[in-house]
């Protein structure tokens, strides 16, 4: 088997799978929208199928309110199924989906033949409009009463519940904007449909051209002489006998007898470089990073939804900081190089960073204890090591974590003057060692960082179990005063 042909087929399969799945971000809130929810006739027909089969109008009204207020998160559309998470009254959203029967291959053939036979229908689809003649044809595109099958993970057994109803209302807005969403629900993606229609149009054009050639070159019946439909030599007249643009050929290129030369554009002209308009300026960064959608609870998942939510939120915050730091480029000089405000961290330090920012309070709860326990097991350390490292990160970030386990010898200057400043303030005398000033009997210590700040530590008197305590301070008097006041 040719490996290049195999890889090409695999790439085509990936494109086909991608074409049959579309994901839409949460639709914007529609404050004060009290009239018709759908703006197109086909969007209204979609909602008619929902409302006709609904058993409880109150649930529909509640679902309409949920949709209008933006309770429906990201929507995924695949053949025969629409899925989204919908936020209700509980912290965890529910997973709602709508099922719709896909068309058979025979139904698709009839539908595509009808579109290929009427170019106006394809033009309307490309303009994001659904022709009535197409929707009302032999193959029914829009759902009827009972065709929509709602499902939801909520405990409400209504058909539909308010969460599934909210999803249906939002899908009507998607259909307003793009009727190809309806065709995807019925089983085919937009790119797939357009490629198929292109092939059918080409075959139809070739068939009509062959039929026209046969009709214009057929010999006349015996006994007919020169007359209507014959040329001066007694042969059948064809379009090439008539003078005009169709009979002209390019200079220097002889044309075959009885054929016309089509007019077109040379490939080198069509592909030549030409001035193009500049790209529009980038949009400004939003004032705050976005919030990722909340994930529903699920059994048997290979990950913890809360952990995935936190990682997504952390990525959004870091991306927002990077975009804000980059700023808008100067049209004259372009965008200057911008260094990332987030240094690359080893896995242990990055895990401590995530843990420290996941629960910014210093108190230990059942949630933080479980988090520390999981991180300790994953890194081969103890929960005490994790808790101490988290406290150091909260105290001073990467520098605070470095000072937890590393000593260094500061040059003469601020470190030497600190002892004199403490004595002048009538504070306890601390014994220097490396970058530490310590009073072991009181269990207090100041650690001098590379950032010229003082990091307070405390321990049980007579032990060496030092813990970061309080924020770092550029003034040793302030750092020690706050430590003694605890």
Question: Which features would summarize this protein structure in a list?
Answer:
5-stranded antiparallel beta sheet; 16 helices; elongated; 9% strand; 486 residues; alpha+beta
Rg is 37 Å
Give the percentage of residues in beta strands. Answer: 5-15%
Helix content: 40-55%
Structural class estimated from helices and strands: alpha+beta
Q: Characterize the largest beta sheet: strand count, sense, and whether it forms a barrel.
A: 5 strands, antiparallel
SSE order, as H and E? HEHHEEEHHHEHHHHHHHHHEEEEEH
Spatial sequence of strands, sheet with the most strands = 1-2-3-4-5
How would you describe the overall organization of this protein?
The chain has a 5-stranded antiparallel β-sheet with strand order 1-2-3-4-5. A 5-stranded antiparallel β-sheet has the order 6-7-8-9-10. With 486 residues, the protein is of the alpha+beta class. Helix content is 44%, strand content 9%. A hairpin with a 2-residue loop joins strand 6 and strand 7. It starts with a helix and ends with a helix. The protein has 16 helices and 10 strands. The longest helix is centred in the middle third of the chain and has 28 residues. Helix 3 packs across helix 7, helix 12 crosses helix 14 and helix 13 packs across helix 14.
What is the topological layout?
Blueprint lengths: L2 H17 L2 E3 L16 H13 L3 H12 L3 E7 L2 E6 L7 E6 L5 H13 L1 H8 L5 H4 L13 E4 L9 H16 L2 H6 L4 H28 L49 H4 L34 H22 L20 H12 L7 H14 L3 H23 L8 H11 L6 E3 L2 E4 L4 E5 L5 E5 L8 E2 L7 H9 L2
